[in-house]
Automatic annotation (TrEMBL):
It comes from Paenibacillus germinis. Keywords: Cell membrane, Membrane, Transmembrane, Transmembrane helix, Transport. Belongs to the binding-protein-dependent transport system permease family. It is found in: Cell membrane. CDD domains: TM_PBP2. This is ABC transporter permease subunit. The chain crosses the membrane at residues 16-34, 76-97, 109-129, 141-161, 182-207, 257-276. Pfam families: BPD_transp_1 (PF00528). InterPro entries: MetI-like, MetI-like_sf.
């Protein structure tokens, strides 16, 4: 075992200290939001830096969940994240698998068309007119269908499928599987690390959808969570429709309400990471082919 020299020890400990400082700087804003959201609004209004929940209270969360708009918007964001991610994975992986098979007719021309879409974007107005002509304005599908896939994601997953030995597919065909069965029963199970990674990217994109919602959703009853948060941040009140800051004699501080809303919007997507982390480092072909 190599014994570290004095200079290597200094370098290693300096790196560790630097990483710890970067971690603290990165985590502190979320920690501060957490502390303020559980702090008594009367204490927060006095000013000063809050390093721990003072006068612990759940009134901020109780107020948020008692308003019909916020829980509804959170449900809409969950719906977009779940349905959108599932459809995006199916569409992207199916197209990538088809393009990874060299026997596919017109494969090169389709790849060129997809490459063209990554180099030249149609622009904002053509996208809006397309969504409008499809009758998707004020529909949640306007936030899902235009973002189902992208040329970049298709190329990345296709490259991943290209690395899977063709002997697996040939063995499945000999056993009587068609292309759909091979894709569903062989390719997808072996691609869990890639699917987990792209699924996480898709979920974050749908959960944080904002600009498309501003363009296509005019009915505030269908606003996703990020749009409601934006409205809360620019309004002087604690809800998109306006309201008092006093409720049954209880002080309701707009800043505390906003902190609670930000925390509620952040925690669900953070909870997804632990469930997908194991797939990031798992070997894609471990145990699939034995010598």
């Amino acid at each position: 075992m190599h014994k570290l020299t004095f200079s290597e020890k200094i370098f290693e400990r300096t790196n560790m200290l630097l990483l710890v400082l970067i971690g603290i700087v990165s985590i502190f804003p979320l920690y501060y939001v957490f502390c303020v959201s559980f702090t008594d609004p009367a204490v927060y209004l006095k000013g000063g830096l809050i390093l721990y929940p003072q006068g612990f209270t759940l009134e901020n969360y109780r107020y948020l969940l008692s308003t019909p708009l916020f829980p509804r918007s959170m449900g809409i964001s969950v719906y977009l994240a779940v349905i959108g991610t599932a459809l995006s994975l199916v569409v992207t992986s199916a197209l990538a698998y088809a393009l990874s098979r060299k026997r596919m007719l017109g494969r090169k021309y389709i790849l060129l068309l997809i490459l063209f879409t990554t180099l030249f974007q149609p622009g904002l107005i053509p996208n809006y007119l397309l969504v409008k002509d499809l009758g998707l304005i004020n529909s949640l599908w306007a936030l899902i269908l235009p973002a189902l896939s992208s040329g970049w994601n298709v190329f990345l997953i296709k490259s991943f499928f290209d690395s899977i030995p063709s002997s697996l597919e040939e063995a499945a065909v000999i056993d009587g599987c068609n292309d759909v069965h091979v894709w569903w029963r062989i390719i997808l199970p072996l691609s869990l690390p890639a699917l987990a990674t792209f699924g996480l990217f898709f979920a974050i994109g749908y959960w944080n959808v904002f600009f498309n919602a501003v363009l296509y959703i005019n009915d505030f009853q269908k606003w996703p969570l990020q749009l409601v948060l934006r409205q809360m941040l620019i309004d002087s009140s604690t809800s998109a429709g306006g309201g008092d800051i006093l409720e049954e004699g209880q002080i309701i501080n707009p800043q505390s309400i906003k902190m609670a809303a930000v925390l509620i919007a952040t925690i669900p997507i953070l909870m997804v990471y632990p469930f997908l982390q194991k797939h990031f480092t798992k070997g894609v072909l471990v145990g699939s082919v034995k010598e």
